[in-house]
Design brief:
Protein name: SH3 domain-containing protein
Distance between the termini: 20 Å
Number of helices: 2
CATH topology of the largest domain: SH3 type barrels
CATH architecture of the largest domain: Roll
Shape: elongated
Structural class: mainly beta
Number of strands: 14
């Protein structure tokens, strides 16, 4: 499944800030809403229904049955601050034993990525080395690339069986440049 731009006339979603990683929540057997807190363990600020949580980032990560993927902004022990809605509001939640937090370098390794349609064109390119100014443009509609390794904001990707190069996977300000049309190979 490729990430496609929204229909003409529909507002494009803002590219989210990447934060520090990804939280994957299995929804198998999850019937109660996910509780959120203003601060770890102190003041409950609301809940998020599993179905609503599943739809939250399905435009960024391929929708996988029985799984919710949330962007993690910070960590304090077993508590994670996550983005809880389309407006980018954040809350804390306590990680359950069957949930999995994965830092970005680990999550990206082996993942298929494509540039998000609303990424700046000047950054949608494959370059011979990180920080190179000129490269080969790569549109959001191009086939997915496979991430081999990550160095900071840069990822070394396989374009096909015979070519590879470097891409920025997030901007210097932390906004994501890539989406995930398929499952990572290893997790």
């Amino acid at each position: 499944m490729l990430l496609l731009p929204p229909p003409v006339g529909a507002a494009q979603r803002m590219r989210p800030y990447s934060g520090i990683g990804v939280l994957s929540i299995s929804t198998v057997g999850l019937t109660a809403p996910i509780p959120f807190y203003n601060e770890p363990g102190l003041v409950r600020s609301g809940t998020l229904a599993p179905l609503a949580a599943q739809r939250l980032n399905d435009w960024l990560f391929t929708a996988v049955p029985d799984r919710v993927v949330l962007l993690v902004k910070a960590r304090k022990g077993d508590w994670l601050r996550v983005e809880r809605d389309d407006a980018g509001r954040e809350s804390w939640l306590l990680v359950q034993r069957h949930w999995r937090y994965t830092p970005w370098p680990q999550f990206l390794k082996g993942a298929q990525v494509v540039f998000l349609p609303n990424s700046p064109k000047r950054l949608m390119q494959v370059v011979p080395q990180p920080e190179a100014l000129q490269g080969t443009p790569r549109p959001a509609t191009a086939p997915p690339m496979r991430v081999v390794m990550v160095q900071g904001d840069w990822a070394y990707v396989l374009l096909d069986a015979s070519s590879a190069g470097w891409i920025r996977w997030r901007e210097a300000d932390g906004r994501l440049l890539v989406g995930f049309p398929g499952e990572p190979m290893q997790q």
